[in-house]
């Protein structure tokens, strides 16, 4: 008996003696059955589960569940109330160190992704306790067996695991041969990888070559999963890249050359390290290049077959994780690649092949992608994903680490998908697209991060986050003159030793999940605020008391073992024993339900960075003492379900050996589906323009704010036609509806002649009281100088047959401002329609206020009466949208205007002769925001009109508060007489610049002399940079509220702002509609999202997919997931209208996309509900009755109120009809109308109700 076996024997004897002194536990055992049937729970005592073998006859064909109580929590060294205690190495026996040995031949790897070894966890000896395996770089690997609770002993030599003295990287503990005990696979840098097969006696036999797994590469991480679901484990072998020990510039050597034909090549002795990255004429650029990763299929006979070809999947990989975001049972793979190499998102196809869908599934990635982990962050039952980067957590760290961003400007603006230097938080949606929420969660920045780990550390049922940080060299030293020197033959490590930059020691971070995608930094409170160089980390319940310990590999100091002190919450562990599936159940999904919540875990091993965990699912269930259900979905297709199980147990579930039943997958009907329509092929095409050449420090582009759209019956044939705004150089499109659902574009003419203008808002209305609809188009954009004649708005007069010509000179006043929105109403009660035209931006002078116009209609000629009627309206700010609406029930149209960098404006109509600015007294005066769109409706069914307003949301780098707003200063800071933009934010009550030294000095060169280092600029406050006087003399703007929300009206024109649910804040909202999509007579909200216009460093704000919210008629809204709504819109969306396109009475949705195709969605109306369209015919001058208010009276005595608008949302005009929805169980009795001239009429509804009702003003 060898030493290892003696130790195990002693351990077993000790365990048995300890157990005999305790009262026997009765275990809850449930026979596994199909999910459709209830399992019969039986109580009986079972011994420890037998060791699995390949013989299926040893298992119950029906499967089984066994339970054992968790160990009692032990308070070993706790001296305070922190959640974690770092255990001393003398207590644990874990003394493993990856040291920095400067004289090691491979010391250059310390400046790489290979600088510190990895961690694996698994029960090597089958005693029920997890053991630890550490890989060493300059030191041998180490196996530590847990001999008693949280005490480990080194069994490396006895087990034969010391390795071949290679530089070890990632490893994994898996049952590769499906014999029931755990084997170990180790990646090595530039040496053969090793596979140690456990012979069952405590000895391991190195067998990589016989299995075909002895690859020599820049091996980094082995990620095992059964991707083809045949019952054995396959391997994705992720690589990084080779680091040239001769340095990037070998002395007197050429790396690239040309052959006789002129073809450029890399010399053979450098081909291992370098590749050609670009060729520009005679200039050839080369750089280090990643290697090809390998996907290897397990043949089931001890060998593997490579499924990938050399040259595919090339990247500088830092982490890889198997996950199943679409819940199809097939594991997909996400690979995080460093530097400019795009990440891989490999989607598992039904054929057993993979498709890289990174470009079609996510809005952007991290730039320097590091560790990854997956778990359910938002509690919706789907696995989410965090990819770590290295963005600083403070203003100073971010500015010192940015350096000269100009070298990366082109890459930031053109990479596809975009890559940004911050963490990425991807949220699964059940569709092919992922949302991204890093800024909103507060998890965007975590310093120089290696590992991210997502686990429920405090057992409250919500997944928390842990980051490890630090680096052997400090790369955040942009000012170092020594680092800027390039010496021949010098590696990155050598350079930093010469420059004496020292290591980058940073604090690890922990974030508690507060729910609703909110996280709190609890690093210090939880005792996880270690400062050092921490790389790999994993979490496992080492002492089997039901909470998770954390194991961290530190560079140049001992491994950290953090004991979890959580002992006041209930928890559950679930271990799987596969029969038809792989023996550890890897790739299974385990779900638990309690009375209060549901949780889900996908069993995957490789998580974080160079770390592999246990195949054990952990659930914290807070104060609940019982599981109402526990279920397992196996890779084989088996689904087991167990009910009414006590908490505080570890459950071992064995898979059935019988063949799984096959049930057809039922696909739920989506609320909306893409509608095949000729409209869907219509494209908005931008002519790209460099806004930053004129104003370098713009926070956003203002040349890409369209398109707009408008509906109206231009030829009086009873159906609505369509105008789609064009960008500069691409004229707008007038599209005729033939009444059968087909649309034809009317090209050329007066509209085509105006292709030089940038269309913004558009509006169909009867300008000249001749009974047909004319077309008003706002000219906007910034692709011209201030006051350019191209900015004159256009009015096209209809000849009565749908043919348009430009209005006569003088019909419109001179309006050479870059406009945005247009909306109409009879504000002066004279019978014709007047206009409000909102000024959007002053070309070259953002954010100053352009002119807005109130245009009075006098017999078809429009007069600017702004100064006379509403003087504060003229230059109140940059208008984004507006709506005429009766806010105070006096039957006169008031005006609500949304602005950027200003509050929402409320202008009350006083007897049709004046618009009083009631912004301050209406309750919205302090809502300084970046508002975009507005829609009107009676949200709470109280008889007055409320409003939904879209804003930029919470998922941005800007996080304003009332007393700490975002600020923008516009003034002459450099004494040149030219005004410049300076954005500012607060950190710890100090006002700081948003932009860094590089960008700021490009616009204001004096800053280079005033702050000659990045360090000095990063340490300076805004006042120190620009002086208090210069700041005070500038124009100052602010924003305090960026959330989209609703304005609840008290019936007198005073409002309360209520933000929309948090998920709706995931991206900037633009077009927004209030309508009843499901016929419950309560108004719902649909908002389109995303903005591709922010400056390149900020990047696209594109985390959303649009959002449908179901209203309850009381002011509350429930988000509907994209999977259920069917509304997946990931583009740069702007305008939004609703129009019944298929004649069923239900409003369908039309979405305008900047530089993209229109998107059209059919409303799959509930069969138990009815929708009726009401068309009004008004008097001369207002043929559609714009401004009318109707009340629907139902058979159950209830009523609903509606207003008819022309122009709302964002650059949008809906058809001039009103939809009334209700259940078929009741009927619509009558409709009463208050007409724009304050006349009233009531109309009985004949039976049966028709899809369309036409009402003419008496």
Main attributes?
five-stranded mixed beta sheet; single chain; 18 helices; 1258 residues; mainly beta; 8% helix; eight-stranded antiparallel beta sheet
How would you portray this structure in words?
By secondary structure, the chain is mainly beta. Helices cover 8% and strands 37% of the residues. The chain is built from 18 helices and 90 strands. Strands 9, 10, 11, 12, 13, 14, 20 and 21 form an eight-stranded antiparallel β-sheet that branches. A five-stranded mixed β-sheet has the order 8-7-6-5-45. The chain has a five-stranded mixed β-sheet with strand order 54-53-52-51-86. The protein is globular and about 100 Å long.
In short:
The protein has 1258 residues and is mostly beta strands. Helices cover 8% and strands 37% of the residues.
Rounded mean pLDDT score: 93
Counting helices, strands and paired strands, the structural category is mainly beta
Major sheet details: 8 strands, antiparallel
- Low-confidence segments, ≥5 residues, pLDDT <50? 1-53
Helix content: under 10%
Distance N terminus to C terminus?
106 Å
Proportion of strand residues = 35-45%
Radius of gyration of CA atoms, rounded to a whole number? 33 Å
The tally of strands reads 90
Number of helices: 18
General form: globular
